[in-house]
Each structure stands twice: as structure tokens, then as C-alpha cells.
Amino acid sequence: MRSRLLLLLIFASVIAFGQKKHVCISIDDLPVVDYGPYDTVVQQRIMDNLIVSLKKNKVPAIGFVNENKLYNYVNKPMAFQIHLLDKWLGNGLMLGNHTFSHPDYNTESFKAFSHDILKGEIITKELLKKYGQKKKYFRHPYLHVGTTKARADSLANFLTEHGYTTAPITIDSEDYAFAYAYYKAKQKKDAALMKKIVSDYLVYIDQDIKHFEKESIGLFGRPMNQVILLHASMLNSEYLNDIIAIFRKNGYDFQPIDKVLKDPAYKIPVTVYGTFGSSWLDRWALSLNKRGDFLMGAPEPPEYVKKMLNE
Fold first, then answer.
1. CA distance linking residue 244 with residue 55, whole number of Å
2. Which pLDDT belongs to residue 36?
3. Measured distance CA(126)–CA(99) in Å, rounded
4. pLDDT in tens, 66-98
5. Are 237 and 52 in contact, with CB atoms under 8 Å apart?
6. Cβ contacts of residue 92 below 8 Å, gap of 6+?
7. 311 burial type by CB count under 10 A (0-12 exposed, 13-18 middle, 19+ buried)
């Protein structure tokens, strides 16, 4: 019965969506990724660059907030950090919940993790209200949804009860590795290394798009509506225009998350569980008994980038 349902959903997705290619840009760890002691000038520049690139290219996007970044060391809200999120919303962009402190559901108890979710919506919820929006989307830290069916179901039910929709991702990128390497190179004022990192990063993004598109065609017979995960880093803020151009070169247009998630593929249930944090395409593939070579071929950062990540 379950196999028949999966086949019907796949068939429906093929006839409903044809060959149009859409993507939603989602950006985690707002207001900004803090690899180092960024001052307010740098934080403002990162946020401004992201907003300007999205607005200039007429690209909708959703950012996922860790609210612990909105408080100082004595647990008082910081007006400047809240201002960054306010500016994001004021430019017509969306916000979602990424928990308060980015805990790992693989190791946290359900009670502690669910508490962190609620703690992570307090300020964002009020900002959303200011712009006529409501809390809706939740992004799992590390993309960890539950190591067992019971754990996954408990969290899914909790999210539903509190008005949240899971924001899955299909294009999984290791942009954080490139971003950290870029930050380190910038600290060293190594212009040649920075240039190399950027060049390799943009090639990697192009390969990543092609890989997950190929996987969606292998599963559903068509390119599905995609969601890419990026982070609010200095690297992405400076080169988001290029990333957008790469998507367009690959034939994608940009849609808000609510429209992208209307793709019937997102109704396909995930029936495999474990410690992994991966693309939903990989999860569906495993749920549909795809193994081996089907899951191979995802691009990886160059070895020098991986090495810098561990320095």
C-alpha cells in the first residue's frame, strides 16, 4: 500500500509540474554567521549585501533565525541585532525559526530541544507581526529531524501543534566550509587565496545544482522545485549575485518557499531515520529503496578548504 502511494505521488508530480524549474533561496543562522568577533559595521555590511543582492535580482528568500544572537552576555536583547532582522523583513523577505541556540536533536532530549524552539520564536514572532506575517516555517539545525521514527514523529507533532511547517532543503551545500576558509583568508589579507576560494566556490555551487537536479530527475522524472540551504556569511553576502546568476544560467527562476513547497514531491513521506543531516532528495531516495550509485556524486569542497575548516 505504501509503495503504491509513493508511485501515485511521483506520477502526480510529473504531470502537475512539467519541466519548469523553480528554486527558493533559504539562508540559515540569521542575523549573521559569527565566525569571528564581527563588529556592528561588518554585521551591517553582511546583512545589507544580502538584502541588496536579493532586491536587485528580484529574488524572494527566507532567513532562519537563531535568537540567541539577539541577546548580549547578560541576556538582554540587543537593539542593533533586532534592527538587522527588522530591515530584512522591511525589504519584503521572510523569517523562520532555527531554534534559539542551534542545538543538535541527535543529542538533545526532546524536552530540551522543544523548549529551545519556543525560546527561539519570542522576538521573531513580534517582528513578523509588525509586518503582517505569522510564524510558520521551522528549519532543523544540522538538518537533524530524529534518529528514530518515534523521535522524528514526536518533533513533527510538536511543530504542527505550535503552528510550524518544516522547511526542508533539497540542494544541500557545504557553503559553510568555503565561508570559513574565506573568512580565514580575509583575516590573513591573502588576496590570492580569497580569489581562489571564491572561484572554487562558484564552480562548486554550479556542480551542486546540477547534481541535485539530476537526482530529482532520477526520482521523479523531472526537475522538482528546489530549496537551497545557504548561510548568512560574509562570503555569501559578497557573492550572492553570482550564485543567483548561476541558478539562472541553469534555467531556474526564484519563488518564495510557500510556492516551492506546493510541488507534490514534498508530500512523499520519509521512512528512513538515522543520525544523518542531508538533502530531502537523499531521504526520499532511501525511502524509495534507491541505494549505491544513485546517492553518489555529490560535489565536495577541495581538500585545501577542508583543511582550513579544521585549522
1. 12
2. 73
3. 16
4. 999 999 988 899 999 999 999 999 999 999 999
5. no
6. 55, 60
7. exposed
- C-alpha span between 288 and 304 (Å, rounded): 36
Among candidate residues 233, 202, 216, the one with its CA nearest the CA of residue 299: 202
Q: What φ, ψ does residue 162 adopt, rounded to 5°?
A: -105, 20
Q: Residue 214 has which C-alpha cell?
A: 539530476
Distance CA 236, CA 183 (A): 11
Crossing angle of the two packed helices 191-220 and 234-249, in degrees rounded to 10: 50
Beta strands, E only, the chain: 22-30, 61-65, 94-97, 137-138, 165-166, 226-231, 253-254
- Which residues, 6+ apart, have CB-to-CB distance to 180 below 8 Å? 35, 308, 309
With contact defined as beta carbons under 8 Å apart, do 240 and 113 qualify?
Answer: no
pTM over 0.85: yes
